[in-house]
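input
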Amino acid sequence: MSRPPSLLKGAIVLALLACATLGATLVWQQYCQQRIIAAEQTLKARALLTVLPADSYDNQPLEAVLQLKEPALATSTLVTGYLATLGGKPHAVVLQSRTQGYDGPLDLLIGIDSNGRLLGVKVLQHNETPGLGARIAEPSNPLMQGFTGLGRTTTPDAAWALRKDQGQFDQIAGATVTSRAVVNAVHEALRYFDEHAGTFAGVKTDD
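output
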């Protein structure tokens, strides 16, 4: 039995509306995803400027993505890395490290010069408790500021720990877990750099 023309026309209209709605939803999702990616890149670019002195590179480091081998370390994982060049030669790297904080994942940007010394450490993302572990992201935080200039040649491996763990670093008051995680992640990034320095010197980047 055939449907009345009015019902058939209504079904067609509903189908067209459903297709249009689905198409609009997909386009909106794609648009939002692109905006999220762009926002993340902007956040990384701004953070990158704080761990790389302006005179330490003349390229676009975010466009020079390093191919990291065996990025899973003892207490952290290297998510990605970027190469900073000066005069066409490798001059520094920025490693994005992810470790486990007290309340969730903690992402760091760690700048290291060609001599294996820290140019700066910056918190990229965190879920730490406001007023406690969250203070790790404050620009004036003495723990983060104290990393600059250090390296494994000037600071022996045994010293890369909190004072309460017989190391040389003061923890953030009330945030032992967060402080310990950051110190360990920075130390592991330095060790990784030292072990792969030859690779970085002749680095191949993703285009």
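quick obs: The mean pLDDT is 86.
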